[in-house]
Write a structure and sequence with these properties.
two-stranded antiparallel ribbon, alpha/beta, disordered C terminus, globular
Length: 163
């Protein structure tokens, strides 16, 4: 299967992934795809019906669903590519991302991969991406992380280059 070339692949379309995509868009990046496991973007905040979100970013108190909707509406309005129902089953240190979607397998080769898979704390082994567990020696330092891409700060580094 031939890989689709993308400048940036973002795994996760919750508020973190959407915020990253929107920030990149604002900086002029257009070749972005977001891969989301759920049927719709927005992440776990769709379930947080209490308010308290949004004061810093939007200057008003929002519920979790309202907060997530702000990001989703802007991303959709700008025409960002969001693939829902996509489970990432492979990620190599060469930034090749394989996702199982409703339409079949999709393979992307990216200049940068951003992991924005939620706020649950997990070890590398618990990410359920075999290539990360076995081949790539990666250091996770943030729940929103970038596998080296050059244009932006690198928060998740491929340690194999340093050996």
């Amino acid at each position: 299967m031939k890989a689709v070339e993308k400048k940036i692949v973002i795994i996760g379309a919750g508020p973190a992934g959407l915020a990253a995509a929107l920030r990149l868009y604002d900086r002029g990046e257009r070749d972005i795809v977001l891969l989301e496991r759920e049927r719709e973007p927005g992440g776990i905040l769709r379930q947080c019906i209490h308010d308290g979100f949004g004061l810093t970013r939007f200057g008003e108190t929002l519920s979790g669903p309202e907060y997530a909707a702000r990001f989703t509406e802007r991303a959709v309005g700008l025409g960002l590519e969001i693939v829902t129902g996509a489970t990432v089953i492979g990620l190599t240190s060469g930034r090749v991302v394989t996702a199982a979607t409703r339409e079949g397998l999709r393979v992307y080769r990216a200049q940068a991969v951003i992991l924005a898979m939620g706020c649950r704390e997990r070890t590398r082994g618990a990410l359920s991406i075999p290539e990360l567990q076995q081949k790539a020696k990666l250091t996770l330092v943030s729940s929103v992380s970038i596998i080296e891409g050059g244009a932006h700060d690198v928060l998740l580094k491929d340690q194999t280059q340093n050996q």
